[in-house]
Amino acid sequence: MKDKLLVFWQNHSETIMTLGYKLILALAIVIAGALIARSVKRAIQNSKSPLKKMDKTLLPILSSVLGYLVYIIAGLFILDIFGVNTASLIALMGAAGLAIGLALKNTLSNIAAGIMLLILRPFKVGDFVDASGTTGTVSEINLFTTIFKTNDGLYIASPNGKVWGGNIKNFTRNGKRRMDIVVGISFADSIDDGLNVLKEIAASESRLLADPAPKVMVTSIAESSVNIQLRAWTVNGDYWQTVWDLNKRVKESIEQAGLTIPFPQRTLHISESMASAITVNKDV
Fold it and tell me: What is the pLDDT of residues 128-137, one digit of tens each?
């Protein structure tokens, strides 16, 4: 047995040494590629990196693309070490890529949608949006999905194709939002008194913007009330707390002014024939 191994080694030692060298070199390239890719991602995500000055929306995509690029280059080096004709391989990969692309068209459409989101930028990381029915703060945009964090702390990963394919409402982009505070008063109450109450509240609320100026108006004559409205603007950061506070103040101020906030009610008229029928049924 030892003689056979010795003969095999003498006949193929050069080939074995060459193959071993190539395997060690390939392994070194794999390890180096992994380390470089990891270092590139860490460098991009480093809080002190100059890249942090870029839009946070671009950083996850840039990190992923550069990481994949490092692995591709490492793979080409390894193939070249083993004598593979990379030019022919690239052509073959192109043909295979076409077939794979047709099979994975939905996945590729998500990538294309992600690119469109980055180019046209209807929102960025940190914006509060409603994208195709998903409402939340944008945490990340990557090649395949957009990550949202909802107000109740849920993690939602939505495919880029779905996000891009529907309406996108960006509540953060313009920096301010309008609130509509509606309250109903009785038909017997003075409309002017109700409007004056809303004007006084608007004038005393420092969080409301002067431009556009707050407005008060009669919005509708409902079945049980006359609906009046305070329409005002505030910055995004103050929006919800201001809405909650104003609803409370409007209710209390309307009542302090002697006005009535009616509840829905209906008047029932009973004809004489119906009253007689009810009386007969009651006697029976």
Answer: 999 988 999 9
